[in-house]
Design goal:
The protein is of the alpha/beta class and 206 residues long. It has 8 helices and 6 strands, in the order βββαβααβαβαααα. It has one domain (17-203): Response regulator (Rossmann fold, 3-Layer(aba) Sandwich).
Length: 206
């Protein structure tokens, strides 16, 4: 039997495709690597990556951010920035942007991804509103990719039912080339959202 690229084979011989999350900001050296590192640290069975709409390609994460990430239990030392592309987007089951502007840029690049694109804080709010109990009832027999797709579909439906504020409260502050206090403020917006998402996806078996 041929297993699709990126898939593994389960004990019963069926293929299991991984769940993939992509975080997106501008330069891919500040906000999206922070979110990526903390999501990866909390979700051992999910592939997490990041990219930038105007990436500083090949650049490492900014040192202040890398240190904040390290202090809170993750590692971004090997991170290198990369430019967002259509193929990168198409490979992700969930795209978490760090601002509404990034969401718009993602959808300009790949218009068909509307149901899979959320700001980080938007998705956290929607998934929290759905409740861990409801997510825990999703089919545990699904492969990770299918399970993530179910969660994303629920969040997308929830987006039509819940009126979240369409303002900067859904964005994460950009700390690039700004003082450490701004980095701390940015991290304090990212970290709770990541923890909410990790808790919810873990309850759903990811």
């Amino acid at each position: 039997m041929t297993v699709p690229t990126g898939a593994s084979t389960t004990a019963d011989g069926s293929s299991s495709r991984p769940a993939r999350i992509l975080t997106v900001c501008t330069g891919n050296v500040c906000r999206s690597p922070m979110a990526e590192a903390w999501l990866r640290a909390g979700l051992a069975n999910v592939e997490v990556a990041s990219a930038g709409t105007g990436a500083l390609v090949g650049g490492p994460m900014e040192p202040i951010g890398a240190e904040i990430v390290r202090q809170l239990g993750a590692d971004a030392s090997t991170h290198r920035a990369r430019q967002l592309t259509g193929p990168i987007l198409e490979g992700a089951g969930l795209v978490l942007t760090l601002s509404r502007t990034h969401s718009a840029e993602v959808l300009e690049l790949s218009p068909g991804l509307t149901r899979r694109v959320f700001t980080l804080r938007e998705f956290a709010a929607l998934i929290d509103d759905l409740g861990v109990h409801r997510l825990a009832q999703l089919g545990a027999s699904d492969d990770p990719e299918a399970r993530l797709a179910k969660i994303v579909d629920l969040a997308s439906l929830q987006r039509t039912a819940v009126r979240l504020p369409a303002d900067e409260s859904l964005d994460v502050l950009d700390p690039y080339r700004r003082p450490q206090a701004v980095w701390v403020s940015s991290a304090r917006q990212i970290r709770p959202a990541v923890l909410t998402i990790v808790h919810a996806l873990s309850a759903a078996g990811l």
